[in-house]
Each structure stands twice: as C-alpha cells, then as structure tokens.
Design goal:
Length: 124
Amino acid sequence: MTSWTREELEKVGEAEELGLASLRRDGSRRKPVTVWVIRVAAEVYVRSVNGRSSSWFRGAEVRHEGHVSVGGIEKEVIFADADSELNDAIDAAYRAKYRRYQARIVDSIVSPDARSATLRLLLR
C-alpha cells in the first residue's frame, strides 16, 4: 500500500467533490457517485450523508475496494472504517471546507448517521 503524496493531498483539499466507484463481487466497477471529500492531516475521508443504509456505502462494504477520481487524480483505493475517535476532527474539516453552504446542508454531513458511515480512503 502506498500513501497519498503531498500534491495529491493538496488537490483533495481543494476539490469540491470526489467521484467514487466501489467494486462489485466480480471485480467490476459500480456506477460512480459524487461525494464530498475532506482530508485530515495526511488521510482522506468520505461520508455517506444518508448513513450506512445508503446504496453507495453498502456497495463499498461489499469488497472494500474501489476507484476514486478527484482533482484530476485517478486512484485505486481500499475503503477502511474511520477511527471513531477522529469524528470531531473530521466534522471540523467538513465544516471548514464546506462553510459556504447553508448550515442545514453541512449539518447533514456531520449528523450521527453520516458519522457512522465515515470511510478512510487508503491507496491500493
């Protein structure tokens, strides 16, 4: 497994959204979805605003592998559950990055349901 480069982390930090396609059981890619993406230190995170029952999140839980597109970067990733002790830092990163949106919109990505569906993106 490799790590995100400084340049990649900067692009993630600047990117509004990330395209995410999880892998099916047979290894083929699912249809990509668009999600908000943040970084905390040298790690990249995404959340399902609709919690763990969201179809894209359930798909990511099948093989824990997929493909992401962000800021012109294409990467194969592993979806890992985020450490729940980082939820406050992840919330703060979402609030800071997306502060120009209405509070009710940002509140949905820091809700208990969304927090329970936080994934760290590890490079394959």
